[in-house]
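We modelled the chain as a single entity of 275 amino acids. Its sequence is:
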Amino acid sequence: MGSNPNGATSPGARPIQPLRELLVAVGEAVANLNTTVVGLDAVERGHEKPETLNISWNPQDRVAAARKSRRFVLEAVLVRVAEALSEFVTATAQLPRFSSVRSRWDSNTTRADKLADVAAELLGSGNHLVAGAALLVHWRNRAVHPRSRASLTPQQMRNLRSASAEIDSSFAGLSVDRLLNDFEIGHPTLKDISSLIAMSIRMAREMDKAVNFLSKDELDILLEYYGLTARISEINAQTTPCKRQASVLRLLQSSAPGLMEAYSRLQPSAARHGE
């Protein structure tokens, strides 16, 4: 299973590659969202278009225009984060422990279903963070496909509602009832989307903790998934034994730093073996 003998991750364990990539993608999306929200606030307050900005912009109602743009940006961020979440799930699901989960998937299995399946395998089917992340993916689907009726399962709905008090406390007064109502009417608020992103990241961190200590087989699978197996083979063929590990670690540092710990632990340097 790729875990420590006592079932815990190593002290001070760093995120492996799937989580690292998710954090980078979501961090960029949130930073851009925040910058845009600040700019739109300036529009609402009367900021004029600079003469050097060569665009056509003269809304009749500045406040309405800014708020319409905010909704557009929120939906764009939903798409970006949902895509990053799906990639995180796809990469994580490559590990052997999820083979039985993958075997149940077919062409009709949605991204939200895959997320829920993989996350539930690690965190349990009653986890409200999983329901929050699934809701984010469904919201993305409704934003992209206006006729979509993608929605939570009854169990996921119960998971969110039963955790209402905890969610209110953990996410600055977020109301589950209002969140679900905003989802149904298709009017995302900044608080809705920021909270769902935070839930998704917390879920992903918990999942990473559960799979963080990779086995040799798991490392090999992720190296192949990220297209690094062939590149490492080239290094091994072209580099002297005593320099191979350092060369591979440089490659991982630039391409997949989330696999460096496992490679260092599972691929002892040639020098230690007297090569």
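As a brief sanity check on the tokenised model: The first helix runs from residue 17 to 44. Residues 1-11, 270-275 have pLDDT under 50 and may be disordered.
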